[in-house]
Fold these 3 entries.
Entry 1:
Amino acid sequence: MRVSDLSAKLADSLGQQRRYLDADGCSTRYDFSTEHWRRLVDAGKAPQPTRFGRLVRWFVPELEEWEAAGCPPIRQVKGGKR
């Protein structure tokens, strides 16, 4: 059994909400593939993650705030000049 599975069961048994989600959790929450979720983040269309060493996680209240605002782009990407 993976550590993430154990921590999920522990959080469920204690009745606590998860405060951070990994890329798989975010992709499940928004019904995207994990790769699509990562592309949205890279393009600046989804919130940037918090890093804990090598761990990459998204703060759930920040995701909820982004949802409440209508999921706007996080940063504006300038187009190239011709």
Note: The mean pLDDT is 85.
Entry 2:
Amino acid sequence: MDYRYKDVGVTDETDKTYSQWAKLVCEKIIERGYFKEGISICGMGIGMLITANKSPGIFAAVCNDSYSTERARLSNHANAICVCACVIGPELAKKIMKEWLSQEFHGGASQAKVDQIAEVEHSMSGRKSCNSQRSSFENYTHVLIHPIGGRVGKFLPGKKMISVVFS
């Protein structure tokens, strides 16, 4: 599976402002009508997850294993995932990304749950969620890998930081 990608973020290895990078990924997803996806990798993934889920229509999940990756996509219609560079190694990270990008939400029994989550978002924010209305993904994604202490360099040898779009 080949993916086209575009750098969308981190340019300085000492930059630890993960919230601005998570926000940028979400803005790119929203700006493209929720037909794009985002992957963020940072030290723990939790701060990026919290930041991402503040954006309307973004359903982000922490994915550090195959099962959570599968459920994020197939049961929860996640359009963004956050991966923990401090917990998993480069091969598992690559596997998680490939698995997530190759799966597609088809609704079914999970559609009602996703719609309920969107309704909670709407009732709490007063804004209508776009997540429940978006169509199937077209295998384009914005990916953000955030360097924490140079750890991300082990994911992509020769690159200390990278943010990309896959297709």
Note: Residues 18-166 form a domain with the Ribose 5-phosphate Isomerase B; Chain: A, fold (CATH 3.40.1400.10).
Entry 3:
Amino acid sequence: MISQTSSAASYIVQLTTKTRHSILEKTKNDIVQVEADLWDYYVLVHWNFLICLTMKIKAESVFTETEGGSVDISCKYPDGYQYTPMYFCRDPCSYSDVLIKSVKADTFVSEGRYTARNTLSTRSFSVTIRHLTLKDSGVYYCGVDAWGKDKLTKVKLTVSEVLRPNQNPEATEQHDASTMIKATAAPTVSTRDPVSRQNQSPHNDTKYCM
């Protein structure tokens, strides 16, 4: 619920949520930010008119992927926004931070490394980022481009470096020589061919998503 009262010098903008009640008093034309448990409200007040209300979800979804791979990010949105244009942006999510936008529902849109789709059946806006780099780590938002009150779902993406075990050529040669000596001393014991040993070498590339 939103209410406001005016006086000669200041305004009171009052927002009530299910879990928290906040009141801030600011002079006219100020931008008022009220943090609730799940939402950030940005209110522009001019005399007795509520000009704009933009909401940001504080609760974030966290995605982790390794560099070089791809990540699928899905954001749910409430009923009633199915045919509203949607976009994906990087924090602070100004106009120049928008990475891709979807205008038509149930249609894939591609822009560089980004692919987006608004799926009506699941009421979700999904974005795929390909060829990830370490610089892609950061905070993003799935945005619903509603008039006067964009709805933003916060997403945190962490791109980790690919870990490769250190290889020591001298240690590998010593291991092969030791295997040959054992095979000569005990000819009744079967040994693996070089291809099998190669397949057994300790390569442990590990890979770990509105």
Note: Confidence is low (pLDDT under 50) at residues 1-53, 179-210.
